[in-house]
């Protein structure tokens, strides 16, 4: 696909001078309107022409309003970054709505370099590209205007530059490497570009032999992308066909098969609790030493006992090694980004345990059932979540997801008990009672969630919780077993 | 001050068991109410008894609701942290309103260890404690409930523990160091505690010979602090005496002495602009190589030309080495913390330049004049700002602050010009005209700001800006000179 970009296009200085002022004015204006419409913009710049990329990025910073534009250069991973899944640094650098960012290198060059240097094999390369596609699809679906520009330099031009004395100060070792191994690197680039051009995330290849031609082409392409998006936003919003809450096929009722009558006697409970807590204490110290991170997600009916189960975990560990994040309404910084961002941002350092009290599954549970997310939003969430979780487990983290299950009668009993206990009264609201009316909708959503997001690497632990003691022992044991398996 | 904490207090198991349940219930309840009242809580735990601190922190995580409590252990600085001023990591770890955090070690142990290890001399130790006082005063004034607990172990008890075989697994090399150099370390601790106990930030020293006594005393102290704060919040808010907008003494009118008639001819401008931009390009590359960070703050009248001056800076540098942060309304995550937090969070990596388009000076300008900040808030801001800036310059960063000055007639001319230029019309609003009515109040606020926050290390660059060309040249030159001085 580079052949079309090896035609030696050039642009005369006069032509450039005649056309750029108007282009720049229109680009700036379009950026302003995108900001007013709260559109986030991501401009990915990569290519086999490193110097050309740097020059183009400097130009973009001249043309656009730099106050609303961040340039992110992705070099070797830092210590902070290495402790998280690979895409963490891309997620953290995503522009919020109304701002723009340039990613230099990033996803593309990281993948190609890792493959070229043998850090990943062919399968790993394919898997990486699949992550890239999912990532880009997710942010585009969430409203990101994504523009991807690849600068290509024909080999003979690279040779010419390397031999020119006067440009020597700009050239680095790695430019020579690209030149010497061009035949090996080029097919990797081509494959990457082909396989990551799906949907709203197509690459535009620009020949960078001539700087003026390169800059003008890039500016035109950007302006076209900005304008298209603005026109789209100006058009009347597409009338959405009312999509049903129901899934395509009714999922298997996995919850219905749980044995809620299970009980543990008080005495037995004390012994087993102590055993498992002692076990968790030791395992968590070992996890800390060996750098094994854990991410636990707790979901369940209101009053199913998430809090109590989480406390038993926390009490078993050194406080410094463990953190609980209660998930409530997102902050406005979180609302300005893809819904998964608020979970990515908390991912723990090596060796620590992070416990989410409610989690990213809110998207396919409460947001789905209550209509806070549109059907196309929660429907695509299953894939986004699966990709997120695969990144966690590929990174080597322990990931466990708990659904604490009680029946409707038990819930009512607990609500009434709380209402009668002064210290617990604040825990119960009108809304809790209202939610009961949609029990069956939630039940269906949970069943579908478990069916679509459970996997060997990221299993759902379904916990019958009518008996709190049995539930706590099961949770503790599952966490210990999980750590044991990976240590 | 440790003598009173060496009386060998112990607590019988029965007494502990009899008193703790009620204490715990009340602590939990108080934490809940503090959360509901949006009070942020910071519990600093430090001491010469490392193991005792760790045990107490684990206890606190049991007693309190761990979902709203983060435990921050401050160990050796990470690479990320070393690239910022020392207090950056404390600022970043501050709990937002409604949450609680435990700082283990942190400010106290960092200071004492740095002094003991000879990383700072006696003056450095004094300066550090002054920063601590300013930091704690700032967060307390902002509403933080700060509780500081120091665990003290008498030397004979430490000796006893070190000799006990069965506790050997918990002991580390550093416990032996404390023991061997107790006589040198103890006076440092005492001095630190004395000098950082001012105002609402007093240390409570607890003897930790006996674990039960230690835990009960800490719990009681915490509960007392929580309760006092809740009682205070319940009381009717103190009627604030109407404080005048006016400063104590009318500051010198430094702005009035600026020569606004200065002009640069077009041709001269082109040459000098190119010279300075070329110079900045080179200097910024050198700064990047040598790890010199810069922080620039731009303030000035509406339409004084901040944007244009900033653009000339940005255009001179590689985009990746420079970032502009436009300061508008704070996000809700920012509003949940001290007003300086939103500036600390952006502080750049080593070698980069960060440009604030409007800055922390909003506190003593627009917030003061428009009444968004209460008089006691903007009055204490001068000290808080001076301390913040001293940390930046002590860290070795270049800090420059620009006030772009035009007169009232020139502003009106520019407003009208903008209103008549379609592309610039959006830049002008009703509010801009309204702000003109308070010109004299702003003038006074600017004069006081310059008088109270200008210093050799953090100078104000006052820029007559009726002529945009002259203003841009002055800004560019000042930045170049600043870099030159530090490189």
Automatic annotation (TrEMBL), chains A, B:
<protein>
    <submittedName>
        <fullName>Polyphosphate:AMP phosphotransferase</fullName>
    </submittedName>
</protein>
<dbReference type="InterPro" id="IPR027417">
    <property type="entry name" value="P-loop_NTPase"/>
</dbReference>
<dbReference type="InterPro" id="IPR022489">
    <property type="entry name" value="PolyP_AMP_Tfrase"/>
</dbReference>
<feature type="domain" description="Polyphosphate kinase-2-related">
    <location>
        <begin position="11"/>
        <end position="228"/>
    </location>
</feature>
<dbReference type="InterPro" id="IPR022488">
    <property type="entry name" value="PPK2-related"/>
</dbReference>
<dbReference type="Pfam" id="PF03976">
    <property type="entry name" value="PPK2"/>
</dbReference>
<keyword id="KW-0614">Plasmid</keyword>
<feature type="domain" description="Polyphosphate kinase-2-related">
    <location>
        <begin position="265"/>
        <end position="483"/>
    </location>
</feature>
């Amino acid at each position: 696909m580079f052949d079309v970009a090896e035609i030696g296009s050039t642009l005369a200085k006069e032509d450039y001078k005649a056309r750029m002022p108007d282009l720049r004015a229109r680009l700036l204006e379009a950026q302003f309107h995108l900001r007013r419409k709260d559109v986030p913009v991501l401009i990915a710049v990569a290519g086999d022409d490193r110097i050309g990329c740097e020059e183009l990025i400097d130009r973009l910073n001249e043309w656009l309003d730099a106050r609303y534009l961040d340039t992110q250069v992705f070099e070797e991973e830092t210590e902070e970054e290495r402790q998280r899944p690979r895409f963490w640094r891309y997620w953290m650098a995503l522009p919020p709505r109304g701002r723009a960012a340039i990613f230099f290198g990033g996803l593309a060059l990281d993948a190609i370099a890792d493959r070229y240097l043998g850090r990943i094999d062919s399968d790993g390369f394919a898997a990486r590209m699949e992550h890239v596609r999912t990532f880009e699809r997710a942010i585009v679906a969430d409203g990101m205007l994504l523009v991807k520009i690849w600068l290509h330099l024909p080999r003979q031009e690279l040779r010419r530059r390397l031999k020119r004395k006067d440009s020597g100060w700009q050239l680095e070792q790695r430019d020579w490497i690209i030149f010497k191994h061009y035949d090996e690197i080029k097919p990797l680039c081509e494959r990457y570009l082909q396989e990551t051009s799906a949907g709203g995330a197509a690459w535009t290849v620009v020949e960078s032999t001539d700087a003026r031609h390169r800059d003008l082409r890039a500016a035109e392409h950007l302006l076209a992308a900005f304008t298209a998006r603005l026109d789209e936003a100006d058009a009347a919003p597409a009338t959405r066909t009312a999509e049903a809450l129901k899934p395509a096929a009714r999922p298997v009722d996995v919850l219905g098969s749980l044995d809620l009558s299970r009980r543990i006697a008080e005495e037995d409970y004390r012994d087993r609790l102590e055993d498992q807590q002692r076990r968790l204490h030791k395992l968590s110290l070992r996890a800390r030493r060996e750098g094994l991170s854990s991410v636990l997600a707790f979901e369940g009916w209101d009053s199913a006992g998430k809090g109590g189960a989480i406390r038993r975990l926390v009490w078993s560990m050194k406080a410094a090694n463990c953190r609980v994040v209660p998930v409530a309404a997102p902050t406005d910084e979180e609302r300005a980004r893809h819904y998964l961002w608020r979970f990515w941002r908390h991912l723990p350092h090596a060796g620590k345990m992070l416990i989410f009290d409610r989690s990213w599954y809110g998207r396919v549970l409460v947001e789905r059932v209550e209509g806070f997310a549109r059907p196309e939003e929660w429907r695509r969430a299953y894939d986004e979540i699966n990709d997120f979780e695969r990144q966690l487990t590929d990174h080597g983290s322990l990931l466990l997801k708990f659904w604490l299950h009680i029946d409707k009668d038990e819930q009512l009993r607990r609500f009434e008990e709380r209402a009668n206990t002064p210290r617990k009264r604040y825990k119960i609201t009108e809304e809790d009672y209202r939610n009961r009316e949609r029990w069956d909708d939630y039940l269906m959503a949970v069943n579908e969630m478990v069916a679509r997001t459970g996997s060997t690497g990221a299993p759902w632990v379904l916990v019958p919780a009518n008996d709190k003691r049995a539930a706590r022992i099961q949770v503790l044991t599952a966490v210990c077993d999980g750590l044991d398996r990976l240590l």
